[in-house]
Amino acid sequence: MTSPPSFSGQDLPLHPSGSSRAGEGDESRLSRRGFLTLAASLGAGFTASAYGADTPGPSDAVKTTANTTYRTPQISGVVQRCPDLGIPIPTGPPPGVTFSRVPVTDQFVAMTFDDGPHPQNTPRLLDMLRERNIRATFYVIGRNVDLYPAVARRVVAEGHEIGNHSYTHRSLTTLGDAAMHDEIKKTQDAVLRATGVLPRTLRPPYGAFRQNQRQAIYTELGLPTILWSVDPLDWKRPGPAIVSQRILAGVTPGAIVLSHDLHSQTVDAMPATLDALMLKGYKFLSVSQLIAMKGGDSTQTTTVAAPAEH
Ligand SMILES: [Zn+2]
Questions:
Q1: Which stretches of 149-286 are assigned E, i.e. beta strand?
Q2: On the chain, which terminus has fewer CB atoms closer than 10 Å, C or N?
Q3: Which fold has domain 98-291?
Q4: How far is the CA of 257 from the centre of ligand 1 (A)?
Q5: Short-list 76, 77, 79, CA closest to 276
Q6: Tens of pLDDT along 245-292?
Q7: Strand partners, 255
Q8: Catalytic site residue 260?
Q9: What are the structural domain ranges in the chain?
Q10: Is-contact 142 182, C-beta < 8 A?
């Protein structure tokens, strides 16, 4: 038997000895019909037929009018939930300098959301992910973390991974070493201040990051560069249906999906996208979880186009 719906005594004035209490109104008692309705609503093993239509049951002594305040709870079981995978977010050093996907055979996928935190769209997306028990990775802009620290905190509190996406979203290839370091370090500091954790991975804005820069940041800060294998071009705002269609067409085992919680259309696309991926059998990992599944550098790294809005 599943858990019965909860209700308070006030909702259902069930007094087994109610009929002997002189002066109580009908509303304080429970009729046989009311009792049987209640019994049926509680589920298996205690239904009207258990007593038979003519068999006196324990409710006969109880008289009341129908309960008018009780409502059957809404059934809300239609949203699929990703099973708990029992894979901890790794704590060891990341196993390579650059990743755009991880060649695993199981149907694992990492959803990544860039350019937040956004005060409305990010919480809306977090609701969708929580409802489905899905873990994702958020590549945040440090400046936005300083603007919306509570949203960043929620990202971490709800079990998602938070990654570094620079402080001001400038193309890092245009900067000198000191300025490039500053962009990344300031974001590490902002995330730590807001959430208490440090990002473990970096996604450079526009995917633009020279090999020597990647190597330097990996060596000095332990941050691997994370690109992507699926790009729905959601920043062009083609509409939620197209965003969803492109992601579903592109995902293969070990994919890293790029998208942006900055854009409401992208968030609008997520319920259908996530549900369809689950129907295909995909399970969701954070980026660090996914890359930990493959030791060594596993990259298809250098041919990523850099559209203007990433
Ligand atoms: Zn970006």
A1: 161-164, 225-226, 255-260, 283-284
A2: N
A3: TIM Barrel (3.20.20)
A4: 13
A5: 79
A6: 999 999 999 999 999 999 999 999 999 999 999 999 999 999 999 999
A7: 101, 109
A8: yes
A9: 11-73, 98-291
A10: no
